[in-house]
């Protein structure tokens, strides 16, 4: 019984140690600064702030810093353009 438990533990431990793990931030989610987003959308920083307050663009706060997910910007851009054409 002890031998089978030792074998299972050693095989699992070897598998765990040989499996590559990523240490650090997840690079699949790219964060953009306010200035980068304003440049992408071709709007001013106050306009970007207004869009964020209206809920058109979701902002993520890291302490005092405000960041935006790059994936959210594409969807927000379509919505903002449709709002501009409704006027």
UniProtKB/TrEMBL annotation:
InterPro entries, A to Z: DNA-bd_dom_put_sf, HTH_17, SinI_DNA-bd
A Pfam family matched in the record: HTH_17
GO molecular function, one term: DNA binding
Every Helix-turn-helix domain range: 31-75
Gene3D superfamilies hit by this protein: 1.10.1660.10
Official protein name in the record: Helix-turn-helix domain-containing protein
Originating species: Niastella populi
């Amino acid at each position: 019984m002890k031998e089978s438990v030792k074998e299972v533990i050693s095989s699992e431990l070897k598998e765990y140690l040989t499996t590559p793990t990523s240490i650090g931030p997840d690079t699949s989610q790219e964060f953009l600064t306010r200035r980068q987003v304003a440049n992408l959308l071709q709007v001013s920083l106050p306009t970007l702030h207004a869009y964020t307050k209206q809920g058109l663009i979701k902002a993520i706060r890291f302490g005092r810093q405000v960041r935006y997910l790059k994936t959210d910007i594409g969807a927000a851009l379509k919505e903002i353009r449709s709002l501009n054409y409704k006027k």
